[in-house]
Structure formats: C-alpha cells, structure tokens
Amino acid sequence: MEEYRLKIAVQKSGRLSEDSLDLLKKCGITLEKSKDQLLCRAQNFPLDVLLVRDDDIPAFVATDVCQLGIVGENVLFEAQARDDTENFSLIETVMQLGFGRCRLSLAVPNEENCTSLDYFKGKTIATSYKGVLAQYLKEKNIDAKIVTMRGAVEIAPKTHLAEAICDLVSTGGTLASNGLKEIEEVLQSQAVLIKNPDMPTEITRIYERLVTRMSAVLKAKNSRYIILHAPVAALDEIKAVLPGSEAPTIVPLRGRDDQVAVHAVSEENVFWDTMEELKAKGASSILVLPIEKMMD
Question: CATH number for the 6-99+191-220 domain, one of 3.40.190.10, 3.40.1190.20, 3.10.310.10, 3.40.50.970?
Fold first, then answer.
C-alpha cells in the first residue's frame, strides 16, 4: 500500500531555518536528518522536510517538488515579481508565521539631502530585489536605473556603483555602520507558509493536520493564561482591564461571598502596567502563565 507523505521546503541554514524547524518541533514532529543533511524525514508524522536555499523554495512549491514551503515574504514577492517561467503567481500564502521579520527599504549615504522619493529620479539604485523594487518605483512614478547585486549591497555607494540602495533592514545597524540612512520602506516581510494549490486528497488530509497544529502553536505563542482573585464589587472594572479577553471564567471561592477567581486567556501581551492596573482595581494573587498548546 502506497504511503502518502507531505513534503515541505525549508531554508537550509540561518535564523529562518532554526525558527522553521523549531515550529515543526513544537507541532510534535520529530525529524531525522539524512547523511547529506538535505532531507529530514519525520519519524512520527507523514512529513518530509527538504533543506534548500531560500530563493529556491518558491520554485520547489510552484513545480510541486514540495507541496509546502516556509519562506520570507520578501523572497516570495521577488519570485512573483520576476515570474517568467514558473507559475509563482499560483502559489498560495496559507499563514504568516510571526518570525523572520524585516523590511525592504531604500537608503542613501548620510550626507545626501534626501527629503522625498523624487530624489531617486534618474538615480542608480543597487539591490538584490530588482523585481519588487521595479514594481514599487513604477507605482510611485519614479524613473530610476536598477543595478542587481547578490550580496554586500550596502557597499554600492562607496564603490560608486550606485547612488542609493534597496536592501533588507532588521535593526538598521548594518546601514549605520556603512554610513547609510533609511529613507523609505518598500515592504514589510516575515516568514510565511506557502502551498501549491493542487494537492491529492490524501496529501490534503495530512496538510490540514499540520496546519491545525501550526495554528495551535502560533496562537499559544501569542497568548497568556491569567488567573487572579477579584472582589465581586469590582469584577466589571477588572474584566474591562483584562487584555484581549471577552469572556473570562468566573469561579466562586469556597467560604468567600465577596471574592471570586477569574480565569482568562489573553491573546494580547500582558505588561507590568496591566498587572499594576488590575491590582489597583482590587485584583490579587495575579498569575500570568505561558500557553504551550491551544486548539479551538
């Protein structure tokens, strides 16, 4: 009997690779690496993980070598912008994964007096994202020359290869160390789960199981379980302070008519000032706990 297995392409190295494999681990999937480190076969789930270059992932998914992929939106959008041989436009984005956040931005040397996008008219811009940048400049009616570089884009102004750059920015430290300043954000990016729209029924069932697990992990990651004691008289005020919680569970306390226990799941961050406000409203014994798994 044929064994159906879902295939997913993941970046083979770097932070995005670590975060992607960690997500699968939190989904309860145990992976066994092959000797060539290019294929990981799950021991307890019908899943194979292919470890490849990030810019190859859209092609792997578009051509159905893999049914799924985890890739940065910047890479996906660039592949779609340059789509001339593969059906990248047919790739579906299933969900944003919340890691690998960065932005693609235009930057110029610190000494340049750049106050608007009009500065870039007639200029030469170096980038690794020619497709995305060309689309953006067209939308903004900016006529500029684009020079493609595969790495070290930030040195282009120093070498007089270009007068400006368009590159990925995370903290801005690399720009600052190269005497550059960020001018305009072209796009925001984070890791996403992508899929080929054509899956056999048997593979679709496996895919749905995996997506359910991923959704549960991501929801739990962004949620907190809050337990506290509240005076009955102040219950409405305390409920109004609880972040992202519409229907907390109210539990009577044995031997206390004036107090209840409140249990709530918050899908928002719970900060110290939130806890201090709860306490000011009369709450006590406030406990905020992380949630490992959560499924609706």
Answer: 3.40.190.10
As a whole number of angstroms, the distance between CA 108 and CA 129 comes to: 16
Classify domain 223-290 at the CATH topology level.
Alpha-Beta Plaits (3.30.70)
Q: How far apart are CA 231 and CA 209, in angstroms?
A: 43
- The reported pTM is 0.84
**Cα separation, 82 vs 65, whole angstroms:** 20
Beta bridge partners of 24: none
Residues 121-170 pLDDT 10s: 999 999 999 999 999 999 999 999 999 998 889 999 999 999 999 999 98
Helices (H), 142-292: 173-177, 201-221, 235-241, 272-280
| H or E segment and range at residue 258 | strand 256-266
Predicted confidence band of residue 35 (pLDDT cuts 50, 70, 90)? low
Place of tokens 């007068």: 163
Distance in angstroms (rounded) separating the CA atoms of residues 146 and 144? 6
Query: What CATH number belongs to 102-189?
Result: 3.40.190.10
Phi, psi for residue 83 in degrees, rounded to 5: -55, 110
Distance of CA 77 to the CA centre of its chain: 14
